[in-house]
Amino acid sequence: MLTSTFCHIPGIGLQMERTLWAAGIHTWETLRERRAGDFPLGPGRERIVRPFIDQSFVHLRQRNARFFAGLLPAEQHWRIFPEFRESLAYLDIETTGMGTPDDHITAVALYDGRNLRSFVDGRNLDQFEEALGEYEVIVTYNGKCFDVPFIRHAMGIPLDQVHIDLRYVLKSLGYAGGLKACERKLGIGRGDLDGMDGFFAVLLWEDYTENANERALDTLLAYNALDVVNLERLMILAYNMKLKGTPLHPAHLLPLPEMPEIPFKADLKTIERIKGRMFYYS
Question: What is the pTM of this model?
């Protein structure tokens, strides 16, 4: 999709981009090959567009996602996804609360479509920053409002990767609400972890720390891991839906990913006990 994108070029907006697509100009290469007398945007824009296409090819070869993110409107950052998929990670955190001064990160899940890594407070959370540095792009759900500011505040990590927040991508497609609500609307299930939410995750961490319950930690990590695994599926569903209505739709569609094996197992007895605590709090 990125090499079919023109709205990052100065002077070309979404409407003009669609005009180019309608004229059969679907790629940078197609536009660059047009002769001067046959250039569809006029001689004034031609002087800007031709060198910009050359720059775009260079930055794509250099795997510089920031170049494109800096030029594309934020709501169009989803276009970066396929070309930078090999240097992209899905990210989700669990915390002890909603961000008061006493709250801290309990677990982080990082998934790149191949490898799933979990980082736990008191164990290996200090390794998270180095692992995150391997990626040019991150994908979250509501990460711009929660995960990223929390990580910056709690861990002092700059976290300056290109950021695709699926909350806004899905909202533009008519899917509003939290992550789990969007999953349900799009037919993504959670099995034994259905019904769990952020408050449940807080109680799981309390059970682990107060009672040394390793099964509670495993359940928390399974929940956290499922969040990032499902983000990949949501990203591809959203990407495919964004393509609809464009002439690029059939050729650029992506298949849904295989469900990876999650190395943590949710403990049903722990879940039922925590549900009892939640009923008590309510």
Answer: 0.93
DSSP three-state, residue 108? strand
* 121 touches 169 (CB < 8 A): no
Torsion on CA atoms 67, 68, 73, 78, rounded to nearest 10 = -140
> Would you state the structure tokens that stand for residue 112, as one six-digit string?
């790149």
Phi/psi class of residue 159: alpha, beta or left (left: φ > 0; alpha: ψ in -120 to 50)? left
- Alpha helices by DSSP H, the chain: 14-22, 28-32, 42-61, 65-71, 128-132, 147-155, 166-172, 179-185, 198-211, 214-243, 249-252, 268-281
Q: What does DSSP say about strands 162-165 and 137-140: parallel, antiparallel, or unpaired? A: parallel
Token pair, residue 76, equals: 């169009």
Give the relative orientation of helices 198-211 and 268-281 as an angle to the nearest 10 degrees: 110
pLDDT at 246: 87
User: In the chain, count of helices (H) and strands (E)?
Assistant: 12, 5
Digit-coded pLDDT (tens) for 241-256: 999 978 888 888 999 9
CA dist 139 and 237 (Å) reads 14
Alpha carbon 163 to chain centroid distance? 7
Q: What is the pLDDT of residue 278?
A: 66
For residue 264, count other CB atoms closer than 10 A to its CB: 18
Tell which residue, 219, 208, 201, has the closest CA to residue 266. Answer: 219
**Percent of residues, the chain, with pLDDT higher than 70:** 98
- For residue range 60-93, what is the model confidence (pLDDT) as tens digits? 999 999 999 999 988 899 999 999 999 999 999 9
Q: Please, what sign has the CA dihedral across residues 244, 250, 253, 255?
A: positive
Rounded distance between C-alpha atoms, residue 278 and residue 257, angstroms: 34
